[in-house]
Amino acid sequence: MFAHNKRLQYSVHVSESNPALANLMLEQFGGPQGELAAAMRYFTQALAEDDPGRKDMLLDIATEELSHLEVIGTIVAMLNKGAKGRLAEAVEEEAELFRSLQGAGNDSHVTQVLYGGGPTLTNSGGQLWTAGYIDSIGEPTADLRSNIAAEARAKIVYERLINVTSDPGVKEALGFLMTREMAHQKSFEKALYAMEPNFPPGKLAGMPEFEEMYVNTSQGEGDMRGPWNSDENFRYADGDPATFVAAGGGDGLSSVKLGRKEKSVVAAMAKRTASNPAVNPVTGIELGKAEGTMAKTAAVKQQAPEAPAQPATRARKPKK
């Protein structure tokens, strides 16, 4: 059961209307790194979680993310407040009102006209929110890592939003939201590390002969060695690309066993769709190219001036 408290988790004080900035703020309202996506990610994970500690943590954070959605949505509404009134009451000339809604050149005028200046479940580019933003897979060792990355991405977006506004009240509220992302990231990391073992994700171990192999598949200038591919941590596969294929001692080819009927229909299909390497058919592009060349030649001939007629000359008699 949810109960709503009408007081925000953090106070919002906006200095002036700014529809362009409001439109950018939608990134954290209905965007892929936004608060609704975070709330839905953690809430759905919590419902399926069997560990009581992680379930409690996920429900706590999911519910707090909804309170963050309320804060960022309030910022959007406040930044749009003046423009919303001007648009509703038509107190300006059409062209001037349109220019003011365009702000810094983004789509804030679309937000005003379509949604009346309120927060809408889109990102700053108008993309509708989608459940496709939720990447939970139902395995805590994988989902917690995804949650850590999600909080990191959200923090970066908040940093960028802070950097594009000079409104002190907006900066302060965004700073609070950014900081809470850091706290959530810490909780998820602690929960992950409290599981032993937690790597590799899932239950099954990897194949020992390939688990610590680094394959240098992008060779040439710029090759570097570091702890991510050092001889201390990995068996470094380099040199002849033949060493990268047919792993496990196979021939690197594919095969499938078919029944007698399947073999028959596959053979018939292969015969019907076979290409004849001995023919050289004329293609459409070749026909078009030839027709274009002929048309161009004809046009040149039509445009070329006729050569003037040369006067007839009498053959001179040889002198005696």
Question: Gist?
Answer:
The chain is mainly α and 320 residues long. The chain has 11 helices and 2 strands. It has a domain of 175 residues: Ferritin (Up-down Bundle).
CATH architectural grouping of the domain at 19-193: Up-down Bundle
CATH-defined superfamily of the domain at 19-193 = Ferritin, core subunit, four-helix bundle
Q: Specify Rg, calculated over alpha carbons.
A: 34 Å
Q: What is the CATH domain class of the domain at 19-193? A: Mainly Alpha
Strand order of the largest sheet: 1-2
> Could you say what the CATH topology of the domain at 19-193 is called?
Ferritin
* Percent range of helical residues: 40-55%
Main beta sheet: 2 strands, parallel
pLDDT < 50 runs, ≥5 residues: none
Number of helical runs? 11
Output mean pLDDT.
Answer: 86
Q: Say how many strands there are.
A: 2
Label the overall shape.
extended
Structural class estimated from helices and strands:
mainly alpha
User: What's the N-to-C terminus distance?
Assistant: 131 Å
Strand content: under 5%
Task: Give an account of the 3D structure.
- With 320 residues, the protein is an all-alpha fold.
- The protein has a domain at 19-193: Ferritin (Up-down Bundle).
- The protein is 52% helix and 2% strand.
- A two-stranded parallel ribbon has the order 1-2.
- It is extended, with a radius of gyration of 34 Å.
Helices and strands in order, then pairings?
Layout (H helix, E strand, L loop, with lengths): L18 H7 L1 H4 L4 H14 L3 H38 L4 H9 L5 H8 L24 H24 L4 H26 L14 H4 L1 E3 L19 E3 L22 H13 L11 H20 L17
Parallel strand pairs: 1-2
Helix pairs in contact: 1-4, 1-6, 3-4, 3-7, 4-8, 7-8
